[in-house]
Write a structure and sequence with these properties.
This protein is of the alpha/beta class. About 40% of the residues lie in helices and about 20% in strands. It has a 5-stranded parallel beta sheet, with helices on both faces. The longest helix is centred in the middle third of the chain and has 15 residues. It is globular. About 5% of the residues have low confidence.
């Protein structure tokens, strides 16, 4: 895999590059945010690894600009910013995962591999390239969604949320399951992050299409089904 690493600490840059190369990945690197954004916009990368605190442009701004341009390249934040608010902000900003320094290289590699597997439905693991529930269709290659033939525009986190619901059609999913599998949060940040995104997703997926597909199960969570 070709990976872009944006890190301004020379020692961390060298060590992470060596670890990724030893695992068989090709690594491009940048030491400031502006160069990192330019490379990310032009390069064909399987994944991006970004520090949060960078000269030139902060890592969170890089991700926001990438997502605003339509890029769905998986992004892992690798940073010393370890607060719950920092993690939530990073994931809400469009990152796919968040790893705090100091870290174990084995965990970094595992997270990068997991990210790219989720993003690449043609990775040879028998994962379908399209998900269909009733008249709702998700194309995992084009990263597009439509219902009854009408295109639905989703933000990156909304897409991930809907994908998880569609992969679990007819099954109740709890708030804890969504936090762990959509936001990669193995703790409860005590925010309304799930409820806010679910409300936005419902407005886009259900409004104007007749039958609702996303249902609340009181005291349990949510379920997506075609009635």
């Amino acid at each position: 895999m070709k990976i872009l690493l944006v890190e301004d600490d020379a020692e961390t840059l060298e060590h992470v590059t060596d670890a990724l190369a030893a695992a068989g990945h090709r690594v491009d690197s940048a030491t400031d945010g502006l160069d990192g954004l330019a490379r990310a916009m032009k390069g064909d990368y399987a994944a991006l690894i970004l520090d949060r605190m960078l000269p030139g442009m902060e890592g969170l701004e890089i991700v926001k600009r990438l997502r605003g341009s339509g890029s769905q390249t998986p992004v892992l934040f690798l940073t010393t910013m370890s607060g719950i608010g920092d993690r939530v902000e990073g994931l809400e900003g469009g990152a796919d995962d968040y790893l705090v320094k100091p870290f174990a290289f084995a965990e970094l590699l595992a997270r990068v591999n997991a990210m790219t597997r989720r993003a690449d439905p043609q990775s040879g693991r028998g994962v379908p390239t399209r998900l269909n529930v009733g008249d709702l269709e998700m194309d995992l290659i084009r990263r597009s969604v439509q219902r009854d033939g009408k295109r639905i525009e989703l933000q990156a986190q909304e897409f991930k949320l809907l994908e998880y619901l569609m992969r679990n059609t007819g099954r109740a999913v709890t708030r804890a399951m969504l936090l762990e599998n959509v936001w990669n949060l193995h703790f409860d940040p005590r925010t309304n992050i799930v409820e806010t995104h679910m409300s936005r997703l419902r407005a886009k997926v259900d409004r104007g299409f007749g039958d609702e597909m996303i249902h609340t199960i009181r005291g349990t969570g949510y379920v997506l089904r075609a009635d």
